[in-house]
Amino acid sequence: MTCEAAFRTIARQYLHGVTEQHRAACAGSAEAVHEMRIALTRLRTSIAFFAPMVDGDERSRISAELKWLHAHLGIVRDLDVALERLMKAGGRSPDMKAWKQERAACQRHLTRALRSQRYRRLIRDTSTWIEKGGWSAKRGKPSLDCRLRPIGEYSAERLKKWRNTLLKKSRGLEEVGARKRHRVRLINKKLTYALDAVESLAPNEEMPARQAALKELRKAQRSLGQLNDDARYRVIAQGLQDGVEALPALLGAKRKKRLLHKAAEAYREFARLKAFRIPKTSVRDDAAKVEVAKNSD
């Protein structure tokens, strides 16, 4: 499969994942907001993964609009996670009332965004761009070769680059602050989603190693995710003026240390895996090359 075909296959799937949750997310479903945000994050990751091929003004504009939507979903999702923690900890009713009121207010903002012309235009423009954006009609051999490059070859090279970035940023993880941990978590999530997206397109002999890589990435993501939830919980609580010291369900120092150790150990194991071997260049599909060249005219 070529990079052009792979990008369209992956991006279509994730855009559909966004739109199929639209009605329920508008109605306030916490699960729909969560699923819509995941699909949107995966879509943004797929665009970043294929950036060398799809880069341009259209991509920049669409990426900015997707970021706008992601921010609206993220605010509501953070509150849902916080409320879930309060429920598990048996939160006091005055606390719960303030948190629920904040959640309802943010949901109203999200619903307006999801029902806006801006949202409808974003979905329409993104779909059109995926199918026949300017990136797919660029002339010249470099652009054509990029679109026709075998996905196995491209993904191994791109994943290896992202892997090296993650390992570099995660060094000394147990000693860094919350902001750097958050950046590591985002890189981890991008690599996990990218690996998920291309997994079915990879050569069969690479599957066991990539599954092992995913296992370690998900271990680290779970630990860093709990730490991030704790940090977001504190920020929201401060905004609601509830007094952080009095809030239940915050992580203690020992628990944080264990989570950081688990994440660091997962990265050490991940570094030992050989999951992103770059295969020998495949023979390009001449029929596909002719078809793409025809579409570029």
Number of domains: 2
Which second-level CATH architecture of the largest domain applies? Alpha solenoid
Ranges with pLDDT <50 over ≥5 residues?
A: 281-297
Instruction: Kindly provide the radius of gyration, computed on alpha-carbon positions and rounded to a whole number of angstroms.
Output: 21 Å
| CATH topology type of the largest domain | CHAD domain
Helix count, DSSP H or I runs of 4 or more residues? 13
Mean pLDDT across all amino acids: 86
β-strand number:
0
Q: Class of the largest domain in CATH?
A: Mainly Alpha
CATH superfamily of the largest domain: CHAD domain
Distance between the termini: 22 Å
Shape: flat
The helicity comes to over 70%
Proportion of strand residues: under 5%
Class from secondary-structure proportions? mainly alpha
Order of helices and strands: HHHHHHHHHHHHH
Q: Say what oligomer this is.
A: single chain
Describe this protein's structure.
By secondary structure, the chain is mostly helical. It folds into two domains: 1-150, CHAD domain (Alpha solenoid); 152-281. Helix content is 77%, strand content 0%. It has 13 helices and no strands. The protein has helices at residues 3-19, 22-26, 30-49, 51-54, 57-88, 93-114, 117-132, 141-148, 151-169, 178-199, 207-240, 253-272, 286-296. Helix 1 (3-19) runs antiparallel to helix 7 (117-132), helix 3 packs antiparallel against helix 5 (57-88) and helix 9 packs antiparallel against helix 10. The longest helix has 34 residues, at 207-240. It is flat, with a radius of gyration of 21 Å. The two termini are 22 Å apart. The relative contact order is 0.12. Mean pLDDT is 86; it is low at 281-297.
